[in-house]
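Progress narrative, Year 2. Work on Transporter substrate-binding domain-containing protein from Moritella marina ATCC 15381 advanced from sequence curation to structure prediction during this period.
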Amino acid sequence: MKKNKISKIIALSTMIFCSASANAGAVLDGIAESGELRACFDAGYMPFEMKSKNNSYIGFDVDLGKMMAKQMGVKYVPVNTAWDGIIPALITGKCDVIMAGMTVTAKRNLKVNFADPYIVVGQSIIINPKLKGEITSYKDLNDPQYTVAGKLGTTGEVVIKRMLKKAKYNAFETETDAALEVINGKADAMVYDMPFISIYAAQNSDKVESILEPFTYEPLGWAVKQGDHDMLNFLNNFLRQIKGDGTYDRIYDKWFKSDAWLKQVK
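Result:
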């Protein structure tokens, strides 16, 4: 009786192992077979992914994705997706990887696996010019007299709700809409990722003030389906390679140390 039970357990374990082995590398195999690397993002997050004047997609993530596809020998296919649906899009197979300036968080990690961080950012602030000198830190905004704008479903929203509990919070679908609230005087400040705040403040220096020094630590990572260890291994090795051969630095400098690309954006 015990022998039969042990035999069944061994057989079941073998089936599970074989099934797992059959699924291993499925995404990489699919990319090779289709000849396409489909990358999800939400266009509008400067300078990571944006729509250009000729309706193509440009940005830091886009260039990294194109380089990745080139090294794989396949075509890069951008999949523009609303932020609140980007993880479901990955899970349901609408894209192979999320390359969208996504912050690595414990909550998101319950649904996806993250490769090693490819850049570290944090939350910064733009403020209405009338508050210059009055607001010098995020702590000053934690007051019922102030209205803070942010983007739905982002780590900026999480930070506002956790660290600025006393302030009134207005949420928006896009970061641009949230920033416009400050320009239009309907919000006193906006909290969002430092790269966007830096660029937006430079573009609108006559309309907003900024506190650029990030007050949070946020590593950004590419996301894949849970359990896809082969894809994770590929992404981590790709990142190490481009950081080692100078490719990463060249792409980084193009988008973060120069504003020449601004004329391409709508």
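The radius of gyration is 22 Å. The longest strand covers residues 36-41.
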